[in-house]
Amino acid sequence: MIIGVEGIDGAGKGTQIELLARALKAEVKRFPDRDGVYGQLFVNILKKKVNFEMSGESMFPMFLMDMLKDMGAFEKCKSHKEKHLIVDRYVHTTLAYQGAQGFDYEKGKKIIEGFGMVKPDVVIIIDITPEEGMKRLRGGQELFEKAYFLKKVRENYTRIFKDRFFAGQMHWIDGAHTPEAVHESIMGKIKG
């Protein structure tokens, strides 16, 4: 089973993925893959170490290419009841974040579907306000960690959820609760 975990920066994805991986004895794939082929470029862009701005139009296919290299591992876990793969950010992130940069949402959906990406069995979107996300981040360290930008990203996640785009099941989880309560909600959705 492939489980995607999504949400704005500061939503608590890292904590929830760690708890979920332990509970399900699951492998975790993270995107962008900071150790992969595109990893160093992504790190430099996100950490603002390069002197050029990349548009959503430029970044969208780069992030998808980073994911495409792992489709074999995804195929092995797809719809498998006992084997779990947790994905820390997937195509939904690319659509939400590059959409917030101005990349056309509908065009992005068509590209994702046309690339032959593996659809997750379950996608969990952990929701918090941009203000709460910024508090948890203790200020913006990376390119996209700004409250006004995260507001746009959150709006895109809302749209993705309403469309139930690219997922067998999709669940919206309130991330404002304790990590334990959020984990319990997520486990209830996955096992329910």
Number of helices: 9
The number of distinct structural domains comes to: 1
- Average pLDDT score: 89
According to CATH, what is the topology?
A: Rossmann fold
Write the CATH homologous superfamily. P-loop containing nucleotide triphosphate hydrolases
Radius of gyration: 16 Å
Distance between the termini: 14 Å
Helix and strand composition category:
alpha/beta
| Overall strand count | 5
CATH architecture assignment name:
3-Layer(aba) Sandwich
Order of helices and strands: EHEHHHEHHEHHEH
Shape: globular
Entry keywords:
5 strands; 192 residues; 5-stranded parallel beta sheet; 51% helix; alpha/beta; 9 helices; Rossmann fold
Describe it.
This protein has 192 residues and is an alpha/beta fold. It has one domain: 3-Layer(aba) Sandwich (Rossmann fold), CATH 3.40.50. 51% of the residues lie in helices and 13% in strands. It contains nine helices and five strands; from the N terminus they run E-H-E-H-H-H-E-H-H-E-H-H-E-H. A five-stranded parallel β-sheet has the order 2-3-1-4-5, sandwiched between helices. Helix 3 packs antiparallel against helix 5. The model has no long low-confidence stretch (mean pLDDT 89).
